[in-house]
Amino acid sequence: MSTPExxxxxxxxxxxxxxxxxxxxxxxxxxxxxNFDEVALGYxxxxxxxxxxxxxxxxxxxxxxxxxxxxxxxxxxxxIQERKFEEAINKVKEKxxxxxxxxxxxxxxxxxxxxxxxxxxxxxxxxxxxxxFVSDYELAKGVDAPPLPLSTDKKIAVIGAxxxxxxxxxxxxxxxxxxxxxxxxxxxxxxxxxxxxxFRLPKHIVxxxxxxxxxxxxxxxxxxxxxxxxxxxxxxxxxxDAVFVGSGAGLPQFMGxxxxxxxxxxxxxxxxxxxxxxxxxxxxxxxxxxRVGKHVAVIGGGNVAMDSARCALRLGAEEVCIxxxxxxxxxxxxxxxxxxxxxxxxxxxxxxxxxxFTGDEKGWVxxxxxxxxxxxxxxxxxxxxxxxxxxxxxxxDVDTVIVAIGRTPNPIIQRTTNGLETTKWGxxxxxxxxxRTSLEGVYAGGDIVTGEATVISAMGAGKRAARSIHEYxxxxxxx
Length: 479
Ligand code: FAD
Hints:
Bound molecules: flavin-adenine dinucleotide
Number of strands: 16
Oligomer: single chain
């Protein structure tokens, strides 16, 4: 005789909670500290399936609202559980045109993974690592573009080929629009190419994702500095129906302390551009030398500081010290990358800030005076304000300093576009939902709107703007 229990619809078998994530194989710290090869080596098929099997497939997944580009996370993970890797990457790519990049550098711990239900009892599901796995699986097999819709005959100019511009361009192309991506540099990718080092994000991975965006029909025009080559008004005169500005925040900030112009003191921008884009780490094979001394100080505590420090170490520095004015708790860099940096031997000196630099008779930096800081109440950034402690000055012997204290928006477009509303920080003012600026037909997103943020937030902004541009052009056609 059947009981009410056995009569009810059978439930899917419950997965057993596995608290520990499958760890990601990495190069050993003492080995990787001397090469520019990728640190994290990626999951094997077996590891990826084991990690995917930890996912509980929640009926109301909390991870999806944490993803700015709205990837259907449980679905792609389920496909990995079923070993349908090709279908899994196709599911990811419905929403994300740069998955191999995001799988490597997105701060998942503060987004999708932060909300993961499994994370309440143990490690959250390693969504980023799984995204990387399926992307690399596809890259190894060769990437095809999906079938594209009929052309709408609408022309859109996208300024800047960083994550915001690439995403906006890809989404518009998928909707049938003719998109030209106008990039100031000789190469696309923005910070992904010129900022983030090879050992965290190999250039061939970024290039493969740019190639995919081009396969969608996007025309990439490099060496096109908008504001100089053409203004936005001239782009409309040339027949574009809408413009998206994704020109980023690439201007370095300095501290404004005495001696900052001495030789051997770099902005992180200059240092990383030389190392990454001009390949000075391969000197003399590539002809851009870079001077890195024995005792290097890096000022700042973000991803840019960590990347600069780890590059300096790989370029032969004996000691690299990160000097940060707040404490470990406030460090803005990704936790995983701080751990990697410390494993490699990077020293972190907290609660200290440079006050002046002194040089030798030839004008090269030889010492840095710092002052100790204590933390007061939170400031406008909601982090505790660092306050100098009178009389606590100390000297550090340094022969190279890299300043990584932040970057501000690139200003050319704002200066050459009449009527474009900007803030006092030089960022472009937009409607947060649509990315629409004060000018009709002109949209913006990414670091040029928010100030320096993250790859995925720039991509989310590019996606929202693409949707709005499509709606704008559709409405205009009807009118
Ligand atoms: P960008 O990536 O800056 O791209 C803007 C593009 O516009 C550039 O290619 C630029 O050349 C072009 N451009 C500028 N002006 C013009 C013009 N007038 N005409 C034509 N083209 C123009 N984020 C993370 O999420 N995770 C990380 O681990 C991480 N690490 C980082 C490490 C470093 C060293 C740096 C510098 C940043 C890092 N970030 C990280 C931040 C992240 O890279 C940025 O938030 C993101 O790249 C912003 O994207 P974007 O498209 O708005 O701008």
